[in-house]
Amino acid sequence: MLSGSVTGKELVGIAAVVNDSVISVLDLVARTKIVTLSSGFQDTLELRQQLAGPVLQNLIEEKLQVQEAERRGISVTQEELAVALEVVARQNGVLPDQLGNWLASIGLPAIYFEDQVRAQLLWAKVVATGLRPQVNVTEEEVEQEFARLQENRGDPEYLVSQIDFYFSPSRTSDDLLL
To answer: Which segments does the entry list as coiled coil (predicted)?
Structure first.
């Protein structure tokens, strides 16, 4: 799907289901393009295939974060979104009113970018209103953690997580390679 040419039928396929929400293959392709462009690396088939797994993981986490914000009744106003998009535009050397055209010029519909920014804003609000007040870190805990990090400097670190994907038997692994 992220390999070679992609048909319209493939783009409307389902990449993942998160509770009752769907992440489409088009969502995955668009986000992979955003990551590829922001990485500064040349857009190659190999890079897209390497990014597909981590990007899908990120989309799943983002969908869960948005769902949590919705569950808590947290929302983002159009004004907040516009301000955030203006900041992003300026960081990329684009005038805010030209952001949509700039995204289109690189083959990226603005809605996918806006969705990502909206999700980031929502999660920031969840953390600020719900999680941050519950966290109380003492100076001693900070010093202990810093000492532990210094002691383990240079040692290998592993990020372990598991996501189970269920696919219909008619789909082959080649269908899933992005």
So the answer is: none
- The structural domain count of the chain equals 1
Q: Model pTM?
A: 0.67
Compute the distance between CA of residue 80 and CA of residue 57 in angstroms, rounded to an integer. Answer: 26
- The candidate with the shortest Cα–Cα distance to 18, out of 64, 52, 57, 56, is 64
| Domain around 74 | 8-152
Look up the CATH number of the domain holding residue 24: 1.10.4030.10
pLDDT tens, residue by residue, 108-155: 888 988 999 999 999 999 988 876 666 778 899 889 988 988 888 888
User: Do the beta carbons of residue 52 and residue 59 sit within 8 Å?
Assistant: no
What tokens appear for 117 in the block? 């920014």
Domain assignment present for residue 61? The answer is: yes
